[in-house]
Amino acid sequence: MTIFIEYTGAIFLIVLSYLVPLLFSSIRSQKYCLTAFYVVTTALHFVSLFNYAVFTLPGVDLDATTFSNNALGAAASGNAPVLSVGTNAYEYILYLAYTVFGENKLVGQALSILTSVTSCLFLFGIARHLNIKGNFSILLLIIAGFTPSFLFYMSLTFREAFQLFGFIGGIYYAYESFSNKSLASLFVSSLFFVFMGIFHHILLGLSFILIVITFVFYFMSSGLSKKQIIKNMILAIMGISVIGYIVMVNIPAREGNDYIRILKESGSVVKMVDQYRDGVEKKLPRSAYGFNVDTSSLAGTGYGLVISYLHYLYGPGIHSIDKAIDIVPALNAFGRLLVSLLLLYLLIKRVRMPEGLGYLLIMYFIVTAMWSLGTTNYGQAFRHNSLTDWILAIVLVIGIKAALFREKDK
Predict the structure, then answer these.
(1) Rounded distance between C-alpha atoms, residue 102 and residue 9, angstroms
(2) Long-range contact list for 73-80, CB < 8 A, 24+ apart?
(3) Domain boundaries of the chain, sorted by first residue
(4) Per residue in 15-50, pLDDT tens?
């Protein structure tokens, strides 16, 4: 009985993760779609329980354990963490969860899964906007849900689960605003992007760029005259830039998370990136790329960052596998390479793409390019790609759908 009481909060969150899809008739009425949700949810809980009851998975003993332990300590003492941008925002959410549902790491992991399942609901909605329906939407859920980066980082106490929730929610409501010409949905989309940003100062700055791009796409699909579109775009860019600057300068960010301070101290974006990368490389991570970006010249900087971007997306390769745990991120990276080649093939063959895919691909490029600037090793890359791998899952399903329908036409 004592054990049951200790785990009551975690059990409640676990059960809730299975109940959430039932709230939507579009999912509840399709037994195979509901089954797909339950399969993905069960897989996430399996990873969570394995990490909790069997042994700590590789990579979890650093950030994930630190976040959880800090929040558990705060809940035990009753002293809430300082609420600020970055890791503290996530620790504050964990603190609230441990205070309400019990001081147990499994509560934090179950909360991540509940958040991730909700993100899958948004994914289902995005698929509908891209004309991915029926069995193809089910296939998308399975592929995205079983992506190694998703299974690992969305089932444990990493802040990526909440970053994904903000990112994918922002894109879902962006599509809602495009299709329904809804300013209300556009505003909600912006709030989701900002929510994504509160867990990392760089992401917060990026969120305003994503908001600007979303406004541009909204006005382009509004049906207004070209002159009015340009006028609205200029006003939106100016307004969002001012708001973004005010927020970035004034919102609290603690030591190690305040990139505005780091930027001021370094003197330029290039020097800030160089300083950050050097700081990571000095820790000598085992999975380091094995090269430094030469920032002494513009050409050297550009070349180095392009190479770094390729490593970020498509590494580690077979030659970089040093231990058994490297196989998982290597397979994940190989999958990204295959889907990238598929996308290139579809573009060369001029296969008809769903309307709105361009917006999604632009968002993918901007987020991955930003993350790659400060990423110097494959462990970091594996983690950061968990925010965007679902977009490539969409591309893969679009390619499969195109191939199947072409075969039928023949």
Answers:
(1) 6
(2) 74/98, 75/99, 75/103, 76/103
(3) 1-158, 283-410
(4) 999 999 999 888 988 889 999 999 999 999 999 999
Residue type, 132: I
What's the CA gap between 346 and 392, in Å, rounded?
Answer: 13
Name the burial class of residue 3, with classes exposed (0-12), middle (13-18) and buried (19+) by CB atoms within 10 angstroms of its CB: exposed
Tell me how far apart the alpha carbons of residues 30 and 48 are, in angstroms, rounded to a whole number.
Answer: 27
Report CA-CA distances (Å) from 233 to 16, 120, 358, 379.
42, 31, 18, 39
Q: pLDDT of 307-365, one tens digit each?
A: 999 999 998 887 777 787 889 999 999 999 999 999 999 999 999 899 899 999 999 99
What pTM, to 2 d.p., does this model score?
0.93
Answer whether 203's CB lies under 8 Å from 197's CB: yes
Per DSSP, 318 falls in state G
- What six digits make up the tokens of 384? 């950061």
* Token pair listed for 210: 């994503």
Tokens matching residue 168: 């994918």
